[in-house]
Structure formats: structure tokens, C-alpha cells
Write a structure and sequence with these properties.
Elements lengths: L2 E8 L1 H5 L3 H10 L3 E8 L3 H7 L9 H8 L4 E9 L1 H9 L12 H5 L8 E3 L3 H11 L8
Antiparallel strand pairs: 1-3, 1-4, 2-3
The structure holds adenosine-5'-diphosphate and magnesium ion.
Length: about 140
């Protein structure tokens, strides 16, 4: 198995409810290390660009509004198969379909306000990490 890095975002619904620590415990208990972390307010342009792949979807404008509705916590998670492992720890996009014990099952408010983002493949993980972090901000 390969050690990977993946981009994680704790979304505004979760920061608003003060859930950063509980969510970080899920990552750490699940075998991932938080090797970079910063709390920021995304701009509309940043959120639109980050979710650009979804620009044609009906939920795009609402999603961007939601992602700038409060602070987010940007993170780089590291570990064995970190990209897939993080997706397991997060659970399904729609919390109604998320497995017991996952972040989204426990904390998500809706399919949109689903508490966390995680990269979905090695290429997107590399792009998403570089979009938010300088190499010097990541300390493994
Ligand atoms: P994931 O975050 O699980 O990778 P997607 O990449 O498909 O899911 O979607 C990105 C984000 O867009 C989701 O996490 C969620 O916040 C939002 N989203 C996805 N599908 C819907 C939908 N049908 N209605 C509203 N928001 C959605
Ligand atoms: Mg996705």
C-alpha cells in the first residue's frame, strides 16, 4: 500500500456547530494524520473555482453560497491509501446513504451541508492540495 495525501475540508455547517475536534478525531482514529490545517473564509471566486467541475449542475450556485456561508478548515490528510480511506471515514455524499460511524452519518445536515469534502482520486488530490497549500505549509 502507498502512503498518499488527500485534501479535506471541514465545511461551514460543521465549523458553525463547533465540530472540528470531533471530526479530526474521526480522521486520527481512522489512521490518518493531519499534516496541514488552516481555518479560512473562502471567497466566492475560490469556491466557484474549487467546485468548477460541478458548474453545470443544478446545485452549483447553492453549493457555492453554502461553502462561503462561514469559515472552513482546509486540511491535508496523510496515510496508507489516504484518498480512499478518507472517503470511507467521510461516508456517502448523501447522509441518508452513509454507513454507521461515518462523519456524514453522524454529523451531516443534508446532502449539501454534509460536513466534509475529500478528494476523489490521486490527480484531484494533488491539484486540490496545491490549490490551497504551499509545500512549506505541509509537514508530515
Ligand atoms: P462528494 O463531496 O461526496 O465527492 P460530489 O463531488 O458529487 O460529492 O459533490 C460535491 C458536493 O456538492 C457534495 O459534497 C455536496 O456538498 C454537494 N452536492 C452533491 N450533490 C448534491 C445535490 N444533489 N444537491 C445539493 N448538493 C449536492
Ligand atoms: Mg467530489
Amino acid at each position: 500500500m502507498a502512503v498518499e495525501r488527500t485534501l479535506s475540508i471541514i465545511k461551514p455547517d460543521a465549523t458553525r456547530r463547533n465540530l472540528t475536534g470531533k471530526i479530526n478525531a474521526k480522521f486520527e482514529d481512522g489512521g490518518l494524520r493531519i499534516v496541514a490545517q488552516k481555518r479560512v473564509q473562502l471567497s466566492q471566486a475560490q469556491a466557484e473555482s474549487f467546485y468548477g467541475v460541478h458548474r453545470e449542475r443544478g446545485f452549483f450556485n447553492d453549493l457555492v453560497s453554502f461553502m462561503i456561508s462561514g469559515p472552513v478548515v482546509l486540511q491535508v490528510l496523510e496515510g496508507e491509501n489516504a484518498i480512499a480511506r478518507n472517503r470511507e471515514i467521510m461516508g456517502a455524499t448523501n447522509p441518508a446513504n452513509a454507513a454507521e460511524g461515518t462523519i456524514r452519518k453522524e454529523f451531516a445536515e443534508s446532502i449539501e451541508a454534509n460536513s466534509v469534502h475529500g478528494s476523489d482520486a490521486p490527480e484531484t488530490a494533488a491539484q486540490e492540495i496545491a490549490y490551497f497549500f504551499a509545500g512549506s505549509e505541509i509537514v508530515g
